[in-house]
Design goal:
alpha/beta; 32% helix; binds zinc ion
Amino acid sequence: MCLHDHTSAPTPAASLPRRGILAGAAALAGISVASIAAQLGGASAAQAGEKPSGPNYHGSPLTHPPLIIEGGTIVDPQTGGAIEDGVLVLDGGKVAAVGTRDETREAVAAVAGRARVLNASGRWVLPGLVDVHVHANALADARAILQGGATSVRSGSSSFYQDVALAALPAWAPGVSPRMTPAGLFISPDLGDSLLADPDLAPLATLPTGVRETADLAYLTRVNLSRGAQVIKTRANPRAGIPEQDPRELVYNQEQLSAVVKAARGAGVLCHAYSAEGIDGAVRAGVRSIEHGVFVSEGTIAEMVRRGTYFTPTMDAITSMAASPNPVLAARGKEYAPILQAAVRAAKEAGVTIVAGTDSFGTDVTPIGTEARLLAEAGLSPLEALQSATVHAARLLGLGNDAGRLVRGGFADAIVVDADPLSSASALEQVRVVVAQGAVVRNGL
Ligand SMILES: [Zn+2]
């Protein structure tokens, strides 16, 4: 029982700048931002009026030379349209032009002599992909996500607010981290060492059964928001990846999840949920997306359609359990995989928006293209699978047309793949080039 009324406690003051999270995350990974920036070959240059907000640092963000990717087939995931022998011009962190050679002639001339040129002939050019469920705690994690082709991600929580610090990097050092929608700490009964992520969490150490009372759930949610979380991650059920836990038991019911949603004050809540009851409670509590969702019922699917709740099946995370050396997990993976595939088909047919999330953790990153391919194997068309990792995911993250499509003025995030993604979603696993925030972070041409 909770003896404390955290609701009356003041909301903790925003205090990110004075804390050395970034240095901690870099030390954890054994690499420095400076070394990454040097590798990327960025040149420091003043850009009046474009300095990121924050403490008054004397320096200026790194910039990259303009980039032209020419000769490939440029695909628009929104429409499924394709431009053969297309040209993409990236400059100043934005798409300066995209289209046929004729349509882009002026923009190409404007950067001629300054631009780096990549020849994508015989290949396909796409916007950077979006992974709506990752756990990044270090610079190496961010780098591994980028290498897989995801240039925008939504965090599914981090241990010490490293995701909040990663989110600040693109504005200063393009190409070091994907664009990150941070979640902060997992809203879960047992915080473990994450209790040390912020002094304002100390009161929660007094709770004998962990964070369960609605007032405590609201308090933890408020600490996350004050530390810069833009979304809130919570749970209805235990984890599937731990043999000792039964993911069909209930951790938080609808009332508890409603307290989280209310305290999130409009920040989208993503909810880890497996059981029919858990998923239903989460949906009715008003979460923005269901993560995993294996045992979703028909009635809940109808409610998701009504409310516009997104579905992140995390196919790879669930199906790969089947290959676990642990017999409990292997059996679980084999049992869950076809059930989840059927859930994806039922959700799709009902009109639920399905989004691609890998649930990658640390440097154990599943390329986002693999998740798209698994969604296609479950029943999505190649275009639908592409949309799950582009336009639909971008909409969930509130990125509008800036991500998930290549449009003039949008983000300078792009990938080049070896095969036609409109014929087969497995093409998204054949990533040749990754450009993030105008920086070439992978180049296999
Ligand atoms: Zn997760």
